[in-house]
Amino acid sequence: MLSSLSISNLALIKKSEINFKKGFNVILGQSGAGKSILIDALSFVLGAKQDRTLIRTKENMMRVEAVFENLSLETKKILKEQDIDFEDELIISRTLNTDGKSTIRVNGVLVVLKTLKEITSNLMDFCGQHDNVGLVNENNHLSILDKFIGKDAFSILEKINIECDKLSEINGKIKSLGGDDAERNRLKEILEFQIREIESANLVVGEEEELKERFKFISSSENICEKVGSAVNKLDDGVEAVTTQLFEAKNLLSSFADFQDIADCQERLNSCYYEIKDVAEILDNIVKNTDFDENELERIDKRLDEIKGLKRKYGNSVEEVLKFLDETKEKLSNLENSEFLLTKLTNEKNAILKTLEEMCRQLSSLRQEKAKILEEKVKNELCDLQMKGTNFKVNFEKGEIGRKGFDVVKFVFSANVGQDMKDLSKTASGGELSRLLLAFKSIMLDKENVATVVFDEIDSGISGQTAGKVAQKLEKISDFVQVICITHTPVVASKGDEFILVSKMTENGETISQSEIIDGDDVVLEIARLIDGGEVVSDTAIEHSKQLLKR
Hints:
Blueprint: E1 2-10, E2 13-19, E3 24-28, H1 35-45, E4 61-69, H2 73-81, E5 89-97, E6 102-106, E7 109-110, H3 113-120, E8 124-128, H4 132-136, H5 141-149, H6 151-176, H7 181-200, H8 207-219, H9 221-236, H10 242-252, H11 260-289, H12 294-314, H13 318-336, H14 338-384, E9 391-402, E10 405-414, E11 422-423, H15 424-427, H16 430-448, E12 452-456, H17 464-477, E13 482-486, H18 490-493, E14 498-507, E15 510-518, H19 520-532, H20 539-550
Parallel strand pairs: 3-13, 3-14, 8-12, 12-13
Antiparallel strand pairs: 1-2, 1-4, 4-5, 5-6, 6-7, 9-10, 10-11, 14-15
Helix pairs in contact: 5-14, 6-14, 7-13, 8-12, 9-11, 10-11, 12-13, 14-16, 16-17, 19-20
C-alpha cells in the first residue's frame, strides 16, 4: 500500500508531502484546487509517459517520491529478479528536467523506465470517470473475461500459444518450399546456379590470407633483390666488406693471447665474424630464390577478385560462403523432395489445427460457463448500485482460430426492463457507465492483485440514493484494499478513514496548491461545503455533514 507521496515543482505544487493510511483515503477540495495533480504525480512516479509541461513555471526540475509498505509476494519477486535490496518498504523516486532528462531510482538503485513499469505493475490500479472508455471498447472484453476466469483460462491460452508457435514454424517451412510448381522451379534454378558458382571456385579456408601474403611478397620482390643484395655486398663481398674487416681485425689480435682482455676481445670479434657470415648467407639465398613473376601476380590478383566477388554475394568470409553453400544445398534438396515434404508438413499442420480446434473449443466452453457467472455478478453489483432491472450479457461469436482462441466476445447492456440489449457505448449513460466500471472493479479486485486502488471522481454524474450505494460499495472495497478517492459527493466523502484537503493560495504573486491532513471539525466543514456548494456554509449543512459522518 501507498504510505507517503512527496511532490516538488509539479504544476501548481511547489512542495508537498502527504501520508496515506490503510482503508479509505478521501481527497477533498474545490474544483481547480489541484486534486488531479496528485493523480498526475502518482502516474508519473509509477512510470507514466513524462510530460515536461507539468514542471512548475520558472523551475528546472520536478521530482516525485512514493513510499510503499506491505509489499506483495509478486512485487518482492520482481525486486529480487532485478537485484534490488528491500525489507518491507519500497521507495520510488523519479525526476524530470526541462531538457527532458529523467532519473528513476528504486530503493536507491538507478533503473530504466521499462524496469520501473515492471516493478510497479502490481502496486496500484487507477479507476477514473474516463476509464470507462476501456470498458466500452469491445477489443478489451475478451481479456476482461479471461482475467475474470483466471488461471484456468490462462493455462489453456498458454497451450494454444505453444501450438500457434508450432503452426507458424510449419507455415514457414511450407513457404520455404517455394509455393506452386512454377515458383519452385524458378527457385530451384537460382539455387543450382548459386551452388555451381561457389563449388566451381573450389574455395579453401585460409587460402585468401596466403594469397594476399604471396601477392605482397611478389609485388615487393624487385625491391627485395635490390636492397637485400646491396646488404649482402656490404656484409661479405670485397675488401671493404664487414666480414673481411672483422677477419683482419681478429687476426691482428691473435698474437696477444697472453693478455686476457685482448684475448676476450679477439674471441668476441671471432663470434661476430661467424654470425655476420651466417646472416649474409641467409640473405644471399633470399636474393637467389626471389624472382619477379608478373604472370603469377596476375593469377593471384584474379583469384583474389574471384573470392571477393563470392564474399560480396554470399558472406563476409570464406567460411560464411561455404556455410551458405551447405544451406543452399539443403534448400535444393528440400525442393527436390518438396512433394514428399509438403505432404508431410501438411499432415503435421492439419494435426496441429485439429489440436488447436479442440483447445479453442475447450476454452470457449470454459468462457461461456464462466461468462454466466460474470453476468450474474455484474447484475448483482448493479442492483446494489440502484440499477435494478438492468440486464447485462456476454455475447459470443465464433471467429478465426488465433492465439486468443476463436471467440469474439462483446458485452451488451440494457438499463431498463423491456429495453433491447445494445452495445455499452450505445445505451449506457455516463452515470451508468461509472457504476458499471465500479461493478467490474468490485468483481475483479481479487483478480488484479493490487494493494491500492485510486478512484478519480468515479461518482461523477451520480446523486441521491445512488450516491449512497456507491459510497457503501467504495467503503466495502476499502476493507480489502487501500482506497484513495477524489470526490465531490458528500455521502462518498463521509465514508473516509483519512481526509486530505487540497487547496489553492497565492504567495508572492504565484499560485500554489497545497495538501494537508484534516480531521475533526475541519472534516465536518469541508463536507458541509460539498453540501452547500458555496463560500458561506449554513448551519443546516454543518448538521447534515455531522449526520453523514456518524452513519
